Sequence to fold (107 residues):
Amino acid sequence: MSKITISVTQDDINSGVREDCNKCPVARAISRHFPGEWVSVTGDTVSIYDNYDTEEDYYSGCVADYYLPESVAQFVSDFDKGKTVMPFEFVIDTDESHLEDDDEDDI
Fold:
């Protein structure tokens, strides 16, 4: 099993952009573990894209989707609403990408 511990720092919070799935504190923190990749956090999922340059790449370039803990989705919701949030850590299980499951439905 491969797990990554993600640390959302005060700098991530200070530099994060509300209601921006690519620049929120969680996306900034996750991006440090996927250099050169484009990270998008939406609800309880993070999507990792390879070489995202165009809208077409957005739909075809997703290399992994990972579920996020409920506490992360709550953090993002609170941050987007302008509530006070604090630095924290969480774990992503990189063996549990659900991208493959979604692709099987298309066959």
Notes: The radius of gyration is 14 Å. The first strand starts at residue 3 and ends at 8. The chain is about 35% helix and 30% strand. The first helix runs from residue 10 to 15.
